[in-house]
Amino acid sequence: MSKQLPTVPIFGVPFSKMSMDETVHYLTEAIEDGRLTHVITANPIMVMEALDKPEFAAVLRKADLIVPDGAGVVWAARTGGNPVAERVAGFDLMHRLMEQGEKRRWTAYLLGTTQEVIESAAEKLQLQYPQVRIVGCRNGFFGPDQDEEIVEEIRKLKPHLLFVARGMEKEAWNAQYKERLGVPFIMGVGGSFDIVSGKLKRAPILFQKLRLEWLYRLFQEPSRYKRMLALPKFVVKVLRNKENVTKPSPEAQ
């Protein structure tokens, strides 16, 4: 992660302290300059995963920017005495960057989820942002044997933006191929394409204000309950370790 950016570690994961506006400004400049920037939108579930799996923690540390996508991260930083400016939700950040692309005629590639969802999301985003050319899209169900072919396709198309929805388990793919892809901006977007396509609904404003988006998503996707069990564990860990929440991990020093 870039040294000049203000960050706060949450159990060793370095989160950006920038506001949404500052983040958009920083990323717009990076994209315009062609600097390869891998952004991870991280939440408490990912922090807990990093604590359990050193290999996932290593992937997070390779990111150029980790934004606090999750009210739990904002709360943990405040509880630990080193607050972030605000929540920077990946869904909103994606749209804010598409707005920037609209002004600058950027191009974008969408990768992940099912073919039906990704094609629907591409169609809707293209209608919403007609000046951003969506140069390609494909589903996220491919194995290592197809990596080469997909990387080569994206490389040739040279998009400014690459949005990836293949789950946190596949975040390592973005880090592994960042240099080869040569795309100025890569970001994992979680379930954003499901919402854009209309397959899922985004939580109403009331749920967002009450910081209960995770609960609304659980209503829509009950199969996520196992993953959601990390949330109460995260809360307990923060409350029990208040003085250590925002201490740098030895690896980060």
TrEMBL record:
EC code: 2.4.1.187
One GO-annotated biological process of the protein: teichoic acid biosynthetic process
Top-level taxon in the UniProt lineage: Bacteria
Catalysis: reaction(s): UDP-N-acetyl-alpha-D-mannosamine + N-acetyl-alpha-D-glucosaminyl-di-trans,octa-cis-undecaprenyl diphosphate = N-acetyl-beta-D-mannosaminyl-(1->4)-N-acetyl-alpha-D-glucosaminyl di-trans,octa-cis-undecaprenyl diphosphate + UDP + H(+)
EC category name: transferase
The protein's annotated pathway: Cell wall biogenesis; teichoic acid biosynthesis
Pfam family, one: Glyco_tran_WecG
Presence of the UniProt keyword Glycosyltransferase in the record: yes
Keyword Thylakoid: no
Keywords: Cell wall biogenesis/degradation, Glycosyltransferase, Teichoic acid biosynthesis, Transferase
A GO term, aspect molecular function: N-acetylglucosaminyldiphosphoundecaprenol N-acetyl-beta-D-mannosaminyltransferase activity
Family as reported in the entry's similarity comment: Belongs to the glycosyltransferase 26 family. TagA/TarA subfamily.
Function as written in the Swiss-Prot or TrEMBL entry: Catalyzes the conversion of GlcNAc-PP-undecaprenol into ManNAc-GlcNAc-PP-undecaprenol, the first committed lipid intermediate in the de novo synthesis of teichoic acid.
Cited NCBIfam families: wecG_tagA_cpsF (TIGR00696)
Protein name: N-acetylglucosaminyldiphosphoundecaprenol N-acetyl-beta-D-mannosaminyltransferase
Lineage: Bacteria, Bacillati, Bacillota, Bacilli, Bacillales
